[in-house]
Amino acid sequence: MGASWELLAFVFRTLQTRHQDNEPFATAHTLLYLLAPLWINAFIYMTLGRLIHFFIPERRLGGISAKRYGFIFVWLDILAFIVQLVGASITTQHDAPTSTTMLGIHIYMGGIGLQELFVLIFGVLAIHLHRRMVQMENYGGLDYEKTTRGSVSWRWLFWALYASLTLITIRIIFRLCQYARGTDPTNPILTQEAYEYVLDAAPMFLALLILNVIHPGRVLQGPDSEFPKISRQEKKRIKQEKKEAKKAEKERKKHGKNKEGPFESLSIQEGSHIYDSRV
């Protein structure tokens, strides 16, 4: 998806050079070009979850399951995507006042700032997993068959992920610098297209190239290379079981309350004193 969006962005850019007054071409180019890297991010996030599922026996890292890692980071990526989409949409409005354009720029910068925050958090977790696997390999805890099954070493895949994250970070820093001065026409980073090719298009192309040469599929091979897929009928059965268990729990609590009868009084006479005890 990331490569497709980048390709479409340049298709619309080419069309825009031939039809410079066509606003839809300009809008499509801007939106696709600004948002395409988020798909590359999502791919990298899913790869970490699959690495945990494939190599770690308990299939958890830091108390979080492998599948949940991908789920959490993809949703964080979607959040950054939505913020950037809102900002980019505002900046591409035709004949919008400067204040509106600046609002869109600030929203977009907040979105890429969020994206970089998530990238840094993810990088720390990736390093933690990398060190864990190195320790497991040194002490014989890493499945030797899994490490030799693929055509590429798992270590190379980690370096590919680090390189891709670094390239994405370069692109984010460029975008932050580009819009830091708003729509100032004297800002060369904003007005000269060469900067975008060198500091945005080129890093994303290299990231895509690296992830294709050292593709996760060349490392993760075998029965555990994919998350277990649950059929639609199985999902319905699990959902029905949860619903019935919840209903049974509610009935149990209800019957438990009904069994609690009124207090009974017992009079116990000892000497000249009478004591009331309640049970």
From TrEMBL:
User: Which Pfam families does the protein's record reference?
Assistant: RTA1
Record's superkingdom? Eukaryota
Query: Which segments cross the bilayer?
Result: 30-48, 69-87, 107-129, 156-174
Q: Where in the cell is it found?
A: Membrane
What does the record say about its membrane topology?
A: Multi-pass membrane protein
Tell me what this protein is called.
RTA1 domain protein, putative
Name the residue ranges with Basic and acidic residues bias.
241-251
**Keyword Transmembrane helix attributed:** yes
- Region annotated Disordered sits at 225-279
Q: Which UniProt keywords apply?
A: Membrane, Transmembrane, Transmembrane helix
One GO cellular component from the entry? membrane
In its UniProt entry, the species of origin is given as Neosartorya fischeri (strain ATCC 1020 / DSM 3700 / CBS 544.65 / FGSC A1164 / JCM 1740 / NRRL 181 / WB 181) (Aspergillus fischerianus)
